[in-house]
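Budget justification, computational time. The allocation requested in the original proposal was used primarily to generate structure tokens for proteins on the priority list. As evidence of use, we reproduce two of the resulting records. The first is shown immediately below.
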Amino acid sequence: MTLRIDITGLPAGRLRFAASPLAELTAMLHVLAEPAHHPQLADWADGVWAAMPSELARQLREAQFLWRSSRADFLVPARPRRTLTAELDDLDRIDDETYVATALTTTCGNNRIHFPAPSPLANRAAREHALDLAQARGALQEAFAERLLADPTAVRAQVRRTLEQCAEAFFTTAWTAVATELATDLRLKNDLLKRHGIEAALGSVSSAVTLAPDGDSIIVDQLQDNTTTAHDQGVTFIPSAYGRPHLVVIHAPGRRPVVQYPATERSPSQPVPQETVALRLEALAHPVRLRLLRTLARGPHTNSELAHAWKLSPPEVSRHLTVLRHAGLLSARRHGRYVHYTLDHTHIATLGTDLLTALLR
């Protein structure tokens, strides 16, 4: 399974490597919302939460759906600016229709779950469908969606104020601390692009990002089958010190594709018993379960949401979830009348090392 970015006829100069303050802030907010994804940053996250003003903490929890399970497209700029303020100014120029549609696609849990084509700002049926999807994600998410639909101007202003308060509370200090690391990474990438071409530059981004043999596509090795096009828009690559292990790809029709990649390598993992490794490999040896895990990797989901996202029957999804839970790859927690399934990111992340250790032991 791969994501293919068509770059047919695209000059090397239309591939841009640049740092983005807003994208890095979003990566930090994701760490704060999902610390299990980033155990190497646990001390940093604990320190930020401990020092954070209570009102800002409340605001972050209310808006975390914009960056927790996936990133709202507008929070990873296709055209990065040098300052956070400049990028927030660009964000303010997005029309309400686009902002709300993008926020609700993320807010409702997975980019495969969409409301009908009419705007929920103008169409009652689309609005009700969006709220139904948000309700299954929990009370905070439902309340956020209701406020956004009722008064998008006020919610947008509040989101901006929250991001600006994050800059004061922790982002400016953290951004300054990683500036040299990101600048070094960008010099390397741009030098490779200039001297050795697109293939060498992509190879330095990640082993999961390659140039197709015909040179007409960038191939991203992710658990999805999708194609987008850069054409004359180009592709933006943004390094992140706080994003690992995530490789975030933002793509939508008519939008310049963006790839946010880790500027550092992920840390080593711990081994597990051979029997557990074998059980997990057997559980993963099915394409449907891999698709379900792709969705669960972005955050907790219900059986019904998974069935809707992948066009499966709820009983079929339930059978696959049972196998994954037996292998210790998932956990389940009830929230009212909904059961949310959560991926154990650590076990997935360490499976390759666990297998090699088992073979050599």
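The second record produced under the same allocation is shown here.
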Amino acid sequence: MIEARELTKRYGATTAVNSLSFTVKPGRVTGFLGPNGAGKTTTLRMILGLNTPTSGTVTVDGVPFRTRPRGLRHVGALLDAADVHPGRTARAHLSALAYTNRIAQSRVAEVLEEVGLSGVARRRVGGFSLGMKQRLGIATALLGDPPVLLFDEPLNGLDPEGVLWVRGLFRRLADEGRTVLVSSHMMSEMEHTADDLVVIGRGELIAAEPLGAFAARGSGLRVVVRCPDLRGLMAMLAAEGASATPGDDGACTVTGLSAVRVGELAFEHRFLLHELTPQASSLEAAFMELTADSVEYVTRESK
């Protein structure tokens, strides 16, 4: 279990993380989400004792991680897949970590096999693709067979097969009772993988709850409507307080009214409908809506 209480990190006049409190539970995959610059990586580094909090605390299974003498046996982490000496082979890199953490050398071959790198174990890491480095980083996290695992953007550079494999790996690790915290920008993968979410913006907590509860916090009232008199229907719905956006396929997307209410209004005003399809609120839609005020860098198109 990971527990953060009033966790704060300041760099001079800049507050990267501000009074952040959350719990990451064992047996579940927790997605760690937030816009660029939200403070996710700083938080992960404080969990691992790489950055010292300005105030507040964060513990792993009840104690600060930096007090653990053989850290990889308690927490496995992937923060930067490129943070490996390019002149070392994959096997040498893992063997050195196993030696310093008193992990059996037989474990090196096991994790290389698990991540699919056995065939390139004696190649220098400098010649690896980004996807191969990600797999090596995951092998490093798994090396000590730890109860707690942290991954920062683990899907970068992976092909579709690799993404599917990682999804299954996280699920298996959680099913074994481990604590799994995953930071990612890939909302579709979080929607398929995460049980819980911790969402932050500008260093502050936005939500810490099950994924379904967070997705439901978005407006969620989206209805696809197709009608021969689309312009007239849209004008009528606008008068009822809804927002209707026409699409390229002759349909429109209505927000602000339920599908039942749209159907009732169409009937009352004698509009013939060819389609009336409610759409559930997605994780991505809820994330964009609830973090809109926390985005650090905004492009002209997104304004």
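A brief technical remark on that second record: The two ends are 39 Å apart (CA to CA).
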